[in-house]
Amino acid sequence: MAPVSPTVARWELVLRLRELREQRGFDSATFAKQIGFTAANWSHVEKGRRVLTTNTIGPVLEILEVDAEEREELLALLASSKQRGWWAKSSALIGPELQRLYGMEYGAQSIRSYDSLIVPGLLQTEDYARALISADVMIRPVQVEQLVTIRMRRQARLRGPERVELTAVVGEGTLLQQTGGPKVLRAQLEHLVALSEDSDSIEIRVIPFTATAGAILGGSSFHLLDFAGEQLPTFGWAESAVFGGAVDDPDLVRDLAFAYVRAREQSLSREDSLAVIRSYSRV
Question: Do 165 and 128 lie in a common domain?
């Protein structure tokens, strides 16, 4: 089981309230008026930009005619959403979008990721992460070590009894790209080998240069997070050189899932991928 995440709890609460509203036949504007909200304020609630309180959720549950069992579940989600995750304490360094990603990661049951030329953040060593972060011209030098610490903090989900299941598909070029220089890269590859050998919950798959459609996704990077709660959909996140953000359109999340399947089909088996990583770590 994954730990309770305030971010995931807030997301589930919003999704369930919106689904209940639609099931009861209310449009957003009419429902807002019924509960004493402006249409704009209720829209902010359903988009996760405004958080309900124990007082304001009462009329919502009444008008939606929520039964006792579900009411208890929704109130528990509201209580959990009020907690403060470790990522929120770093708000001076990371914006709302990254806080959302880290909160979702913390509460995820499993993660599927694709990266063409870099090791995903959850698998990076400190030196590898430092090399990437310090190369970003948008980041001030004084912030680098703080951001490295945050990246390492995210990796706590890879350990302990509540560890996340992570499957990372990377291009073979990732194993050759001299991020941080030969010494840093070699240590990073040795780290990947150790993680693969020591944990059944981590699977690293390599798309070899020989894959006939290995470049199908180009230089993209994306992640798909799934949760234990049956009512929660897959959460998508995509990155490029100038953009990194949540993919909120369900159709686009579905497309990313198809793209991930295609990428994995082009990759080597877990054992063969590990052999390739091990061979490059010895160069």
Answer: yes
